[in-house]
């Protein structure tokens, strides 16, 4: 009986994290889609309308779709693990680009906001994908 209680509590917590990640992806994605200049400047410090607008909006749309799909599935009681597996794959690509950005710019020191968001998306996605009972 005690084991079932903790199992239900754990699933409730994992689903709450899934909701938070879905909401964060919708917010970040919408921000990148609607205001790519702000998003790109905060990540790289530079913004070139011709070079950056389309990729930034594409990343925004990607996160918006991942977040909306996650939230829709959660709301409907449908499985969501597949959304997190996809997101983790994409976060691994984002992580490699972010690590490469540090190498190219010679930047050391604490992580910036985008690096923290990438790391939290990766870690959160792995945890939700691994711990969710579906």
From TrEMBL:
It comes from Nocardia tenerifensis. It comes from the Bacteria. This is VanZ like protein.
């Amino acid at each position: 009986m005690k084991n079932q209680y903790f199992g239900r509590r754990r699933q409730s917590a994992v689903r709450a994290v899934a909701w938070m990640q879905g909401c964060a992806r919708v917010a970040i994605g919408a921000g990148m889609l609607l205001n790519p200049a702000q998003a790109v400047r905060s990540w790289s410090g530079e913004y070139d309308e011709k070079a950056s607008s389309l990729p930034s909006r594409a990343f925004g749309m990607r996160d918006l779709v991942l977040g909306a799909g996650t939230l829709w599935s959660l709301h409907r009681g449908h499985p969501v693990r597949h959304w997190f597996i996809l997101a983790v794959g994409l976060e691994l690509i984002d992580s490699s680009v972010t690590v490469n950005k540090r190498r190219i710019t010679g930047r050391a020191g604490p992580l910036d906001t985008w690096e923290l968001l990438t790391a939290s998306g990766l870690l959160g996605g792995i945890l939700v994908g691994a711990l969710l009972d579906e």
